[in-house]
Write a structure and sequence with these properties.
The structure holds two protein chains of two kinds.
Chain A lengths: L15 E6 L3 E7 L2 E3 L2 E4 L5 E5 L2 E7 L1 H22 L5 H13 L8 E8 L5 E6 L5 E4 L1 E5 L2 H11 L19 H18 L6 E8 L14 E6 L5 E8 L4
Antiparallel strand pairs in A: 1-2, 1-10, 2-11, 3-4, 5-6, 6-7, 7-8, 8-9, 11-13, 12-13
Helix pairs in contact in A: 3-4
Chain B lengths: L47 E3 L2 E6 L2 E7 L2 E3 L2 E4 L5 E4 L3 E8 H21 L7 H17 L6 E9 L2 E8 L4 E3 L2 E3 L3 H13 L8 H18 L6 E8 L2 E4 L3 E2 L19
Antiparallel strand pairs in B: 1-4, 1-7, 2-3, 2-11, 3-12, 4-5, 6-7, 7-8, 8-9, 9-10, 12-13, 12-14
Helix pairs in contact in B: 3-4
Classes of the chains: A alpha+beta, B alpha+beta.
Chain lengths: 245, 266
């Protein structure tokens, strides 16, 4: 009889991530609670990571795999920087992530990734991945513990699913930044109410396209600028408290 | 965190527990097994185990506590084991889980510190470096399906900064101002959070010592794998200080009044 391997190298550390693309911006958000079972391990463990000044990666699932994966992606981006004297564009980062995930097809990183940022053509982009590398570009995506609570809300509020526009009018293809940020905050406060693995803190990274102004970001309290590209893309972070119970 | 070290790392069934909310996390797998099937033995379960480690931040640094017991299943096998280990002059490592794996880690770290000392480059490894090194070792071993069966706390103080982080057999890491492993994650962590959160920069060493002592006492009352002998480590700008093992003061006179469990006649 083959030896039984009882050791399970995986765990699930809860939490939820979310990203929404606008026409000239991208918002990537995640809560900061890390759990295992019924325990809150810590109230602050970031799940959203700056890769470049115009690309941000959110990871969710098994935290140890997530941190290790982000470390390796950053290492590859640094090598690219040294080889080509420029930052890797986001569609290339997306393909890199798919290759790195699929490279571990038979011992996967148990991580759901969402990549957000600004495309070379200046449009806001969101790429979402499964643990073995299947990916697509989307307008919005939620993943993690409260995915099943948040994604239907986004389908309704971003894609206007199950809504009919007033006669003679149509729904906008992209929403303005302040509207999107309010939707993100509402998504996480609601998820915090109904899911025990979500809460404590909310971290929102905002990437603005070049020559697009602040797009109403100045109306929000506590915005911190995290960096800017030579071409003019800007990166900000916005933090909010979530309920800690 | 599951408090039974024998259950750590065993699979949960996602089919009926997709959100990991079922209250009883895992049970021992008693299916027949042949440890010699492929000639190589890997750690499938911890044998001689230590229970909780507690640690908190306070005004001047970090304080950590662990009892002196190493259990063999339910047998209190070794009653004078040190589970707090100094690493260099700025760091203390506290361990729960398999004690032989912990002693192996001590050996690795001591070798590392000798190598670093021999380099004589004017740099010393601080708690952050030690923790990162340990997390890589633990994650690499879990990735080889041959884990070091521990949950570890790394506490330290260097360059004016407190450091307190956790790492376990899966390579999972996190930091907080209060940390507890094993059974302590259930029983002591809420007490520690109530006492410490938001007051990390006010608590004196005496207050911190009292918080940890009270929590160790609660653990001794409730954790069947614990002991009333424990050690305290304090890490401040003055370096590492680990006390001799000390005894908890406990009272049991309330037991007189308990009815309904034993062989009382009335």
């Amino acid at each position: 009889m083959a030896q039984q391997r009882q050791f399970n190298p995986y765990s699930n550390n809860g939490g939820t991530i979310l990203a929404i693309a606008g026409s000239t911006f991208s918002v990537i958000a995640g809560d900061t609670r890390q759990t295992e079972g019924y325990n809150i391990q810590t109230r602050y463990a970031p799940k959203v990571f700056r890769l470049t000044d115009k690309a941000v990666l959110a990871t969710n699932g098994f935290a140890a795999d997530g941190n290790q994966f982000v470390k390796k992606v950053r290492q590859r981006l640094e090598w690219y920087r040294h080889a080509h004297s420029k930052e890797m564009p986001i569609r290339a980062i997306a393909r890199l992530i798919q290759t790195m995930l699929y490279g571990r097809r038979f011992f996967p990183y148990y991580v759901y990734n969402i990549l957000g940022g600004i495309e070379e053509d200046g449009s806001g982009a969101v790429y979402s991945f499964d643990p073995v590398g299947s990916y697509e570009r989307e307008t919005c995506r939620a993943a993690g513990a409260a995915q099943s609570l948040v994604q239907p809300f986004l389908d309704n509020q971003i894609y206007f699913k199950n809504q009919t526009p007033p006669p003679g009018q149509s729904f906008p293809a992209h929403l303005p930044l302040p509207t999107v940020l309010e939707l993100v905050i509402d998504s996480f406060t609601s998820a915090t109410e109904r899911h025990i693995e979500v809460g404590d803190g909310l971290e929102m990274y905002i990437v603005l396209a070049r020559d697009s102004g602040l797009q109403g970001l100045d109306g929000f309290q506590g915005v911190t600028e995290m960096g800017a590209t030579p071409e003019g893309e800007k990166l900000f972070v916005l933090r909010r408290n979530l309920k800690r119970d | 965190m599951d408090h039974f070290p024998t259950n750590w790392g065993r699979p949960r069934n996602d089919a009926w527990d997709p959100y990991a909310t079922y209250p009883i996390h895992q049970r021992p797998n008693n299916a027949p097994k042949d440890a010699f099937a492929d000639g190589v033995q890997r750690t499938q379960q911890p044998i001689v185990t230590g229970t909780s480690v507690l640690a908190i931040k306070f005004k001047d640094g970090v304080m950590m506590a662990a009892d002196n017991l190493a259990s063999y299943g339910s047998l209190a096998r070794f009653r004078d084991i040190q589970r707090l280990h100094p690493v260099g002059n700025h760091t203390v490592l506290g361990a729960g889980g398999d004690m032989s794996d912990f002693q192996y880690l001590q050996m690795i770290l001591d070798e590392l510190m000798v190598d670093e000392f021999a380099a004589a480059d004017g740099h010393a490894l601080g708690p952050a470096e030690i923790h990162n090194y340990l997390s890589e070792v633990m994650y690499a071993r879990r990735s080889k399906m041959n884990p070091l069966w521990n949950s570890l706390l790394v506490g330290g103080f260097k360059d004016g900064k407190s450091f307190l982080s956790y790492v376990d057999l899966l390579g999972t890491t996190y930091s907080a101002s209060t940390l507890a492993t094993g059974y302590g994650a259930y029983i002591a962590q809420p007490l520690l959070r109530r006492a410490v959160e938001g007051r990390e920069h006010e608590l004196t060493a005496d207050q911190a010592r009292k918080i940890l002592e009270d929590s160790m006492r609660v653990l001794f009352y409730r954790d069947a794998r614990s002991l009333d002998q424990y050690q305290l480590a304090t890490i401040t700008k003055d370096g590492v200080e680990i006390t001799e093992s000390r005894k908890l003061e406990t009272t049991w006179d309330f037991a007189e009044g308990i009815r309904g469990y034993g062989a009382q006649t009335q």
